[in-house]
Amino acid sequence: MAVDKRAARLGVLALVATMLFGLVGARLWFLQTVEQEGLQEEVDQTKRRTVPLLPERGRIFDADGRILADNERVLTVGIDWEVLRSESNRTELFSRVSGWVGVPVEEMERRFQSQVYSPFLPMPVAEDIDERTAATLLERVEDLPGVQIIEEARRVYPYAPLASHVVGYMGSITAETKDAYVGDGYFLNERVGQFGIEASMERELHGQWGYVVYEVDKSSRIVREIERVPAINGNDIQLTIDLDQQQYAEQALESQLKLRRLATARNGLDPETNFVERFFPEYPEEVPFKAPAGAVVVQNWENGHIVALASYPTFDNRWFESDLGGGKFEQLFPAVDEFGDPIDPDESILVNRAIQGRYNLGSTFKPFTAYAALSTGLMGVNDYYTDEGTYRMTSIDQDRCNSGLVRCVFKNATCSGTGRPCVYGSVDVETALAVSSDAFFYRIGENIMVENDFGPVLQEQVRLFGFGEDTGIALPFEFDGTVPDKELKARYAELGVISEAEGQDYYTGDNVQLSIGQGLLSASPLHLATGYSTLANGGFVLKPEIVKAIYQPGVPDSVEPGFADIAQAQFAVEPNVRGDLVRQIPFPQEFKDEITTGLQRVIYGPGTTSDYYHSTTGEKLFYYYPRGSEAIPLAGKTGTAQGRNNYPWNDSSAFAAYSTDAERPYTVSAYLEKAGYGSQAAGPVVKCIFMQLSGLAPADPVVLSDPLDTNSIFAAPENDLTDQSCYAGRYSAVSTTE
Q: By C-alpha distance, which of 316, 386, 273 is closest to 155?
């Protein structure tokens, strides 16, 4: 008969039910005992909200305590992210807020979708609102759920646009830097340093975050404060920059560039054609200088402190804290010119040419070539060479020279009285520096290589002065410079900068060009200043120091507007009174005397006589420069770097000089692009700065800036020198062209 299976089925069901209830019970026991603490913490967290507290950014001062970068309290409207997650709620809330803050709903939605704002902070929808609007929004909190008023700080630059390349500016964290900043704990909607000291000292200026923990109800309204860890504000930083000297350097540079645009380069008659045709027949007799840009460095050669660092064209760092529309920014920083072509790099504004310029140095490099010859024993202080106006290389087979495949003959600069290469007669190191005898240094360039088994001896010697490496200054994007050698040429050939044939080796002809600061040598005005400071101090290569002190947060304001009370400051880091010593170069006194005397003659004369008297390259410019203790005594050198296609209107002007008075230990270098001879463009800038440092040239007082008019920003700021009489020199018909 059939078996009744109902009882068995009920038994199975009872067993399954018992097992299920057992599992549920075990799980409940586990949750209530083993995981009780963790679950309770999770529940508590849902009742809490942690709000980060951003620190106030440290301030930046000049050497006298002027406040170069400060903070201004602003009010920002933010909305809690939780309220914005529903699209319908978000749209409705944006519509309500838009009318009060004047920001379109579309812009608020763009911000929401951009994913560039921190999810831990309210999403900002309007910055820098007035107190009345803030109070009105807070009164309508029931109609505007999640809307908050946040106190923030905006960067202000009281003396802008002075020293904008040095101080720098702030900006949003970019896609390229996001990972690095987030990894360091930054929030995405923070503004960070993008240029200058603001960028290089970002960590010191930023400070440390704090936070506050609130208990909130189900509507995310705050019930009580649970915990608060205050933020630690950023350190205040004092620079070595003296704004008085900075302003004067900027004015002297800009004014001289404008003057050089009114001057012309002469396209003279070529003696090779019996003075029938012009050197460049396709151009007129006179061609204006472009003189688009330049830089100046003023350094204390005793401690390495940078007193002024000017670059032109410049900008106003307040632009980046102002509400400028895209149209104005396109005018300020155009990608293309009026014809649709890429913008001329000569007109780039956001380039600090003082540390980023990549320049041939021309004859300002000759003192380092002289040092190399003396220190390697190639020649002594009493050795002479007869300069006949040209130098013919002796290490190359003359048949090869005559074939025209290799350049073997190099000429001196042209004398204005003859139109031919200058002939200086018998010259030693001192005189060769004074009159800038190219032939003398061409010979060094060839012989120092030939007599050292074609090794890179000249390169090794000039690198001692810091050429070919970054100086270590506390500013971003510094250019290392290049000292040409076999490896550099091979790399340039691979990159297509030079031909493959040129890149096959490093030749004596390359060394001849290097000896006078031409060829593939490149350096910044800061490199030049550091090198001349080393000549001045007897062989101590000092790291250029631009940070004078780092103070604990909260240096108080002085009673004088625009100044901080540095006397009340407390050091966060003990200051380095003298810049770090990079290296000490063996520099016997007789070598130093020989080079310094030659550079003093550049300034004061005398020149030399061969076929007629040749003035030194600077004595006419410095004819009215006071002698004696009244003015800082100088040693310096002119330089003219040949430009593209050897057109004289493309020649760039260089000049560097240092004080021989240990009580006033200054070095000044200047470089003016496409502005002509060293004595006619860069030289007057250096001369004016030393006259001002001597108290002999009047300077405008440094004053706080007027409010920025954002409606009239269409060009770089102008800053001209009021009294330009210091540029004047005494010029005659017969002189060398440097």
A: 316
pLDDT tens-digit readout, 362-399? 999 999 999 999 999 999 999 999 999 999 999 988 88
Helix (H) or strand (E) holding 490: helix 486-495
Please answer whether residues 201 and 547 qualify as being in contact, where contact means their C-beta atoms are separated by less than 8 angstroms. Answer: yes
CA distance 234 to 193: 13
In CATH, what number does 243-545+580-727 get?
A: 3.40.710.10
Domain boundaries, the chain: 49-239, 243-545+580-727
For residue 400, give the H/E element and its range: helix 398-403
Token digits of residue 118: 């921190």
- Cβ atoms of 178 and 332 within 8 Å: the answer is no
Q: What is the pLDDT of residue 345?
A: 82
Task: Give the per-residue SS3 of 105-122.
Answer: HHHHHHHHHHCCCCCCCC
The whole-angstrom separation of Cα 486 and Cα 489 is 5
Mean pLDDT value of segment 618-631: 91
Beta strands 652-659 and 634-641 are antiparallel
CA distance 141 to 137: 7
pLDDT band (50, 70, 90) for residue 75: confident
Tokens 């800061």 label which residue?
526
Question: Distance between CA 280 and CA 713 in Å, rounded?
Answer: 41
Distance CA(334)–CA(238), nearest Å, equals 33
Supply the pLDDT for residue 734: 38
pTM for this prediction: 0.88
Residue pointed to by tokens 């089925």: 9
DSSP state of 387: E
Separation between Cα atoms, residue 689 and residue 569, nearest integer Å: 31
Please check whether the two domains, 49-239 and 243-545+580-727, share a CATH topology. Answer: no
Residue type, 98: S
| 3-state DSSP helix/strand/coil % of the chain, to nearest 5 | 35, 20, 45
Task: Give, for 244, the enclosing helix (H) or strand (E).
Answer: helix 243-260
d(CA 482, CA 690): 29
Q: Which pLDDT does position 715 carry in this prediction?
A: 60
456 preceded by a cis bond (ω within 30 of 0): no
Nearest to 60 by CA among 173, 190, 155, 148: 155
* Residue 8 in tokens: 């068995």
Name the CA radius of gyration of the chain, rounded.
Answer: 34
| Angle (CA) 26 31 35, round 5° | 130
* Angle at alpha carbon of residue 664, lines to 692 and 239, rounded to 5°: 80
CA distance 358 to 528: 11
As a whole number of angstroms, the distance between CA 600 and CA 531 comes to: 16
- The span from the CA of 729 to the CA of 738, in Å, is 14
Q: What's the one-letter identity of residue 2?
A: A
Name the CATH topology of 49-239: Penicillin-binding protein 2a (Domain 2) (3.90.1310)
Cβ 614 vs Cβ 424: under 8 Å: yes
